[in-house]
Specification:
Layout (H helix, E strand, L loop, with lengths): L3 H7 L3 H6 L1 H20 L9 H11 L3 H8 L15 H14 L3 H7 L3 H32 L9 H28 L4 H26 L5 H22 L2 E8 L2 E2 L5 E2 L2 E8 L6 H20 L7 H10 L4 H22 L2 H10 L11 H35 L8 H40 L6
Length: 451
């Protein structure tokens, strides 16, 4: 039987949305923030020749820069102020979360609740600043060493580039936090989502143009399109799949001498508990060293070690895909262990009198939860790895310059589902508020409320 929340969600319509003024404000705020982000991807940094950089970019667009450009909404192709996007912030989050499991002081902060979480977030911001400065400095040196791209090379160009790119990343970090707090959905994920969606029409038209001129086999495009459609359906199915564990609550005595009947509820465990975080984390770690190397590769005569790196670890190469798969699997288990603590969940169930039928409360419950979650994570890790790599392997085999691969699809579908779920939860909360207000009015008037 459907719960009260599910019944309310089933009755949601446009009339309920029209009455939810707070939700409308949140959606408008989110849309305006994303428009601001898109405007920033068209503002180039000072001191470069756009035509010369566009020519140099086209020579490197088939590799890691092409994927970064798609995730960044075309900001790298134009060398805009948001060229670094939010990747330094994501890398900083990885490092802080890793340190929170090994450094005692950070581990204590993690257990201090909201206060500790705010302090860890502050450390993440500081580390984001450091990483952004490092990456922007590498980009500035790479651009300056490339012939004809920088109009006036020198210390001033390096300083202005570092300040501009670092400022763009810090602004996007702040904008993402504002969207999370005052908008709808996760702000950082929505920024990446907006960049991918914005580049989708242009990439599609370019691919179709290559097929029309005969540079690409039309059958390859049809096959890739069919695979991407199947991936979307598969992602939606898995992301909405749950493993429900039955939780039983015993009979208890209530005020007035009565006894409440035992209740039964469910503990939902997602197959993909980590969500879209593992591919983003793995991508950001791979992008951190390759960003500087790719820009250095614009030089006329790159060194031998750089050519070797490009041969084995460039985007689409077997070395890159192997490291990417290993990173995804690692972060699936790592991030799942962060977001779901079996021991803490077992303690909470015991505090409120709940238990899993046939499982002893306490340590045995925690062991059983860890047993189930580990096996779900194995399935989830295999699912994410297949979704992220299979379309890219297919595109690489047929030489299709199509950067909306499995990672981008997973991000787009997951962020869409999460945002829709948050909108639905706001509408359900609004309907609950309406029911509470009507019940109060009914109680005050002593009769039914007229509609």
């Amino acid at each position: 039987m459907a719960s009260a929340a599910e019944q309310l969600a089933a009755n949601i319509n446009f009339a309920a949305f029209a009455k939810a003024t707070d939700l409308q404000k949140r959606i408008w705020f989110t849309l305006i923030a994303l428009v601001v982000y898109r405007v920033g991807t068209f503002i180039p940094i000072p001191g470069i020749d756009p035509a010369a950089f566009a020519n140099a970019f086209q020579q490197q667009a088939g590799g890691i820069l092409g994927m970064m450009n798609t995730l960044g909404g075309g900001a790298i192709e134009r060398m805009a102020v948001f060229a670094l996007n939010v990747m330094p912030y994501i890398s900083a989050s990885i490092i802080i979360q890793l340190m929170a499991t090994s450094v005692p002081s950070l581990e204590r902060l993690k257990k201090e609740g909201e206060v500790g979480r705010k302090q860890l977030n502050q450390y993440t911001r500081y580390l984001t600043l450091v990483l952004a400065i490092f990456q922007s400095y590498g980009i500035a040196i790479g651009l300056q060493s490339s012939a004809g791209i920088v109009t006036n090379p020198g210390l001033f160009f390096v300083a202005s580039t570092v300040i501009t790119l670092t400022g763009g990343t810090m602004f996007l970090m702040w904008l993402g936090e504002q969207v999370t707090a005052r908008g709808v959905g996760n702000g950082i994920s929505l920024i990446i989502f907006a960049g991918i969606i914005a580049e989708l029409p242009r990439v599609l038209f370019q691919t179709l143009a290559l097929a029309r001129t005969g540079d690409i086999n039309p059958f390859a495009i049809f096959l890739l399109g069919a695979v991407l459609l199947g991936v979307i359906i598969f992602v939606v199915f898995i992301e909405r799949s749950l493993r429900r564990l039955v939780v039983q609550y015993p009979k208890r005595q209530v005020a007035g001498g009565g006894i409440s009947m035992g209740e039964r509820s469910f503990l939902p465990l997602k197959i993909n508990t980590a969500g879209v975080i593992p591919p983003i984390f793995a991508s950001s770690l791979l992008l951190l060293p390759t960003t500087v190397i790719s820009f250095m590769g614009m030089q006329t005569n790159p060194p031998d070690w750089m050519q070797t790196f490009e041969t084995y670890f460039a985007y689409g190469r077997p070395g890159h895909m192997i490291l990417y798969a290993v990173g995804i699997i690692f972060f699936c288990f790592f991030y799942t262990s962060i977001v779901f603590n079996p021991e803490e969940t077992a303690d909470n169930l015991r505090k409120y009198g709940g238990f899993l039928p046939g499982i002893r409360p306490g340590k045995k419950t925690a062991e059983y939860l860890d047993y189930v979650l580990t096996r779900l994570t194995v399935i989830g890790a295999a699912y994410i790895t297949a979704v992220c790599l299979f379309p890219e392997i297919l595109a690489s085999a047929y030489s299709v310059p199509f950067y909306l691969g499995g990672t981008s699809l997973l991000i787009v579908v997951s962020v869409t589902l999460d945002t829709v779920a948050q909108i639905q939860s706001h509408l359900v909360a609004h309907q609950y508020e309406g029911l509470i207000k009507r019940s109060k009015l009914r109680g005050a008037s002593g009769g039914p409320v007229k509609k």
